[in-house]
Write a structure and sequence with these properties.
The structure holds two protein chains of two kinds. Helix content of chain A is 16%, strand content 30%. Chain A is an alpha+beta fold. In chain A, a hairpin with a 2-residue loop joins β8 and β9. Chain A is globular and about 65 Å long. By secondary structure, chain B is mainly alpha-helical. Chain B has a three-stranded antiparallel β-sheet with strand order 3-4-11. Chain B has a two-stranded antiparallel sheet with strand order 1-2. In chain B, α22 crosses α24. Classes of the chains: A alpha+beta, B mainly alpha.
Chain lengths: 352, 576
């Protein structure tokens, strides 16, 4: 089980939450400027900073180098192109076959995430579900993102490839609308007591004539309370909000891939921008079976293997081997993977 | 079956050209800004002429809904309206029908007739079961009933046979009784007496001079107060001659004024004076790179917002007209919330909204509709906004710009550090050729500069703070809400509304003989607390609304013909 301590990487704003956590105040860092004040005094929206996400995707390591020796994993198409018979592979039963050549990411590159298990670990540690942490860019080691280690050598998940464009489209077209709401903001630069929630919404973000997500739209939270995260306490330091832990469930309905993107014991980081927008991330543990349901069982059976370049057996085995959270005594294995997702937030009114 | 339609077209063009098309005829027309003569009691009126008024698109649609069914779809492009003396309602007296426009009316009429007589609708309109493909008795019942409503008068005995012949011939040819009625209905809808409101007058033995006939009063009342054709009760009262008498007229006027349908006219009038036809026609466009929040959905919501505020304040709340320029009460949709940057809980539809006291917005002048309408595609325009206030809200004339402007003086705004509109417009004011008019317009528009080309609030332009202060005819204000307060106290504000509404009612500019009456109206309007419903009642019960000098002279004619006028009748049998 992950601890409650969290350490930030890029911003040095590791905050004490329930317990004294992280790196605390940056001691002399000055905010770039005062973020734009919230525009509304309407009851229910006062002292709130809401955002609708305009992009959402994986945090990619920097300086990975040749992290996937010999190239990316191979899916059925790559195997056929090499004159080979594609491996037997059943996405509905991924343990029925093996893909012994399936690669996971082996890199020493940095990653702009969080140390969500409060442990700087290596794969040869004696602890349960030991794994290699990433160092943060210019910051401490200990950043957790085992999901990326599992899928980081799949072509379609790379920066600028299929998954990124599909997901970025989904958060804009209503297929996967995500809202982040920060309540109790008395001072958008430094505030030691704010509350953060993440919601799904069935409203599509408002788009402008140029295709951009427009600011100051009002979006309703999903009527299904399962898609309301728990409420996380947090604080703002130098214009950066960090809050957690919280459990998050995001509804996605992308073409015929229908499911939930779930996070347990997650932290949310928001860097408030002078124009009222925010850059941030969600860092939490994704249940292994939920990840496989979306990326393997559903996507794999409708052409995902071919489009992205993987086998379901290889993917499932990689997810299992890289899992690092929520140890399950019954199975003797970890049941979740640490993740690092980044997002861009456009100011919005979150209607509860 | 084309022969009657072509004949109708020919007559329509002749009639329309002869009776309309002028720019005001030879009548003596008082400028709107002439000072009214005050009167304690209703003054003697020497009313102006009547003219044929083409149905506006909204009147056509409302008539079809009322007569043929609310679910009958009217699809097609209408002849463009013509704005005269600031109003489309006045322009309706100055238009004809072009051949291309007639083709559109033809197509619309055929489509409407097909729906009205399809199996789902015919039972509501055809009061009998036909005995076969032709059935004169049943066809007569339909044509007599629908024709009376469409032409806004009963059909004369000798009018019915030609229409009946159309239905009979078509029914026999098509071996379908209802198909025959469909052709007759389409032909009726191409009658000049349907497409134009023909106001007949008669000698008034009690008062001397001419008055509108009782039937003409039914139409005038209905189109003025409900923006549609007379309903059964009003038409029957007109047929009984009750609308030339004070009591009968008052009874029907009060019924119409107390109806929720009064809102249709209030919306139509304010949409007319505010120029919202440009929004309806999709003519308001913005640069999407500069104003990504602008969309046609948004600007249509903005129009609806303003009209809702007008109707709510003036009718539902029975509010003071002047407060339209100061009220912070409004309505909001999520689409509009993007521009006003306010939260809107209702996911689908409208909800009441009150602008906060410190929002910088109060009154309709700070609505997105008017701000976007009176801006350029790429930026705001204090000049256009100020011109709108002067001309439309205060009925003051602003001369057109001279033809010899030296635009080179404005070419180097950036070099001369003219970062804000105020700075740029100072260059205009520095030119004697421009100063006279810009000094009238610009200060009003500069008060609205904290709202950009689509009405989004801003504090700066090009990094410079925007100064919205100014003065209106000697009265200073600090910002847009202050302009609204100043405007609400302006002595020309309510007289302007009175004049515009009177023009809207009679479809023409006022004449000299109505000058005293205008003064009377203004006084009574003020005495009522500037209540619109009372102003409407004063107008419809007045001699100016009920009497006339006769038909307006055709274009080029020296004067209006003084003789009695009669309704134009169109009989297909005469035209074939």
């Amino acid at each position: 089980m992950p601890s409650t301590r969290v350490r930030g990487s890029s911003c040095f704003v590791l905050l004490s939450l329930a317990t004294a956590l992280g790196c605390g105040s940056s001691g002399g860092d000055e905010p770039a400027s005062t973020p734009t004040p919230a525009p509304s005094a309407t009851p229910g929206f006062a002292n709130a900073r809401g955002f609708v996400l305009s992009s959402f995707g994986f945090v990619f390591p920097e300086g990975s180098g040749d992290a996937c020796p010999g190239g990316f994993n191979r899916g059925p198409i790559e195997m056929q192109a090499a004159g080979e018979t594609p491996l037997p592979d059943d996405c509905l039963d991924p343990t029925a076959n093996d893909d012994p050549g399936f690669k996971t990411l082996d890199t020493t590159g940095t990653l702009d995430g969080l140390d969500i298990d409060d442990t700087v670990s290596r794969r040869d540690d004696a602890q349960q579900c030991a794994h290699d942490d990433f160092p943060a860019p210019g910051g401490p080691a200990g950043v957790d993102d085992q999901l990326w280690r599992a899928i980081g050598c799949i072509r379609g998940f790379q920066d600028g490839d299929v998954v990124e464009s599909v997901v970025d489209g989904a958060v804009r077209d209503g297929s996967m609308t995500i809202l982040v709401d920060v309540q109790g903001v008395d001072d958008p630069v430094n505030d030691d007591d704010v509350r953060v929630q993440v919601f799904s919404s069935r409203d599509a973000p408002p788009l402008g004539g140029d295709g951009s997500v427009l600011p100051h739209g009002t979006l309703s939270i999903d009527p299904d309370a399962r898609y309301h995260s728990s409420v996380a306490s947090g604080r703002i330091e130098n214009g950066v909000v960090i809050a957690g832990p919280l459990d998050i469930r995001i509804r996605l309905n992308i073409q015929i891939v229908v499911g939930d993107l779930s996070f347990r014991d997650a932290y949310v980081r928001l860097e408030l921008q002078p124009d009222g927008s925010a850059r941030g991330g969600i860092f939490g543990f994704a249940p292994l079976e939920d990840v496989y349901e979306i990326f393997g069982r559903q996507a794999g059976t409708i052409g995902g293997k071919e489009a992205l370049g993987y086998t379901c057996s290889g993917l499932y085995a990689a997810l299992t081997s890289q899992a690092d959270g929520h140890f399950d005594d019954a199975s003797g294995r970890c049941s979740s993977l640490s993740t690092a997702y980044r997002f861009d937030g456009i100011p919005a009114f979150v209607a509860r | 079956m084309r022969t009657p339609l072509r004949a109708a077209l020919a007559l329509l063009l002749v009639v329309a050209t002869a009776c309309g098309g002028g720019s005001g005829g030879g009548s003596t027309i008082a400028p709107p800004l002439d000072p009214p003569v005050t009167q304690p009691d209703p003054p003697v009126v020497d009313a102006g002429p009547v003219a044929m008024r083409r149905l506006t698109e909204s009147q056509y649609r409302a008539t079809v809904a009322d007569v043929l069914g609310e679910d009958v779809i009217v699809a097609g492009r209408f002849e463009p309206d013509n704005r005269v003396s600031g109003l489309l309602a006045v322009g309706a007296s100055n238009v004809s029908v072009t051949p291309a426009g007639f083709e559109q009316y033809d197509a619309i009429a055929r489509a409407v007739a097909a729906q009205a007589l399809d199996p789902a609708h015919r039972a509501a309109l055809v009061p009998c079961q036909p005995s076969g493909a032709t059935d004169d008795a049943c066809a007569s019942a339909f044509i007599g009933g629908v024709g009376r409503r469409l032409l806004r008068r009963p059909l004369a005995d000798d009018e019915l046979p030609p229409w009946l012949a159309v239905a009979r011939d078509a029914g026999a040819e098509l071996v379908d009784f209802h198909a025959g009625l469909e052709v007759a209905l389409a032909a009726l809808m191409l009658s000049p007496e349907f497409l134009f409101r023909v106001e007949a007058s008669e000698y008034d033995p009690a008062r001397g001079g001419d008055r509108l006939t009782s039937l003409a009063m039914a139409s005038r009342l209905s189109f003025f107060l409900w923006n549609t054709t007379p309903d059964e009760e009003l038409l029957a009262a007109g047929e009984r001659g009750e609308l030339t008498g004070d009591a009968g007229l008052a009874a029907q006027a009060d019924r119409l004024l107390d109806s929720p349908r009064l809102e249709a006219t209030v919306r139509e009038f304010f949409a007319d004076i505010y120029g919202f036809d440009a929004i309806e026609q999709g003519l308001v466009r913005k640069d999407p790179a500069l104003f990504p929040a602008f969309s046609q959905d948004m600007i249509h919501d903005a129009e609806e917002q303003t009209l809702r505020v007008v109707a709510e304040h003036l009718l539902t709340e029975d509010g003071d007209y002047r407060e339209l320029f100061t009220t912070r009460q409004s309505f909001m949709t999520r689409t509009l919330g993007l521009v006003y940057r306010v939260p809107v809980r209702s996911a689908d539809g409208w909800e009441p909204f009150s602008f906060p006291a410190d929002s910088g917005r109060a009154g309709v002048l700070t609505h997105v509709s008017l701000l976007a309408l009176h801006s350029h595609p790429g930026r705001s325009s204090p000049t256009l906004r100020g011109k709108f206030v002067r001309e439309v809200i205060l009925c003051q004339d602003v001369p057109p710009p001279p033809g010899n402007i030296d635009f080179s003086m404005f070419a180097d705004d950036a070099a001369q550090n003219r970062s804000t509109a105020r700075g740029r417009l100072e260059a205009h004011v520095a030119s004697p050729a421009c100063a006279g008019c810009h000094n009238l317009m610009d200060p009003l528009g500069l008060a609205l500069e904290r709202m950009d080309g689509i009405g989004v609030e801003r504090d700066t332009e090009n990094g410079q703070q925007i100064d919205p202060s100014g003065q209106l005819d000697g009265e200073a204000y600090d910002d847009a809400p202050g302009l609204g307060v100043t405007l609400a106290k302006h002595p020309q504000l309510s007289p302007c509304l009175v004049d515009s509404l009177f023009k809207y009612a009679v479809g023409r500019d006022p004449v000299e003989g109505e000058r005293a009456f205008r003064g009377y109206l203004q006084e009574r309007f003020a005495a009522s607390g500037y209540k619109l419903r009372e102003l409407l009642r004063l107008i419809v019960l007045s001699d100016a609304f009920r009497t006339t000098s006769g038909p307006r002279a055709a274009s080029g004619s020296a004067s209006a013909a003084p003789q009695q006028t009669t309704a134009v009748t169109v009989q297909p049998g005469d035209l074939s």
